[in-house]
Design goal:
94 residues, alpha+beta, 4 strands, 22% strand
Length: 94
């Protein structure tokens, strides 16, 4: 899967509130009321990521969970990253 152009990335970000680009990654942080709530969210994301065969980089700091999405094989951001970001957003909104 080829990396997306800068214009394609900007268009994709327009539909994902709170997500931004940092170099060759899409990033967003989520805040939870408790540490266990954040870990539970990560577990749900892990199930989705495994199904999609596309795995995010995840950093958890107490009640803050940070996701970084990039397609390492393509050397940048691809449609797979946007698909996973949308899935994470849907989960967060549920």
């Amino acid at each position: 899967m080829p990396a997306l152009s800068d214009i394609e990335i900007q268009r994709g970000l327009g539909a994902l509130p709170g997500w931004s680009r940092k170099g060759d990654t899409l990033v967003k942080s989520y805040h939870f009321a408790t540490f266990p709530a954040g870990v539970a969210f990560i577990a749900q994301v892990a199930d989705i990521a495994e199904t999609m065969q596309h795995h995010p980089d995840i950093d958890i700091r107490y009640t803050k969970v940070h996701f970084s999405l990039s397609t390492h094989d393509a050397g940048g951001i691809t449609a797979k990253d946007f698909d996973l970001a949308r899935a994470i957003e849907e989960l967060a909104a549920a």
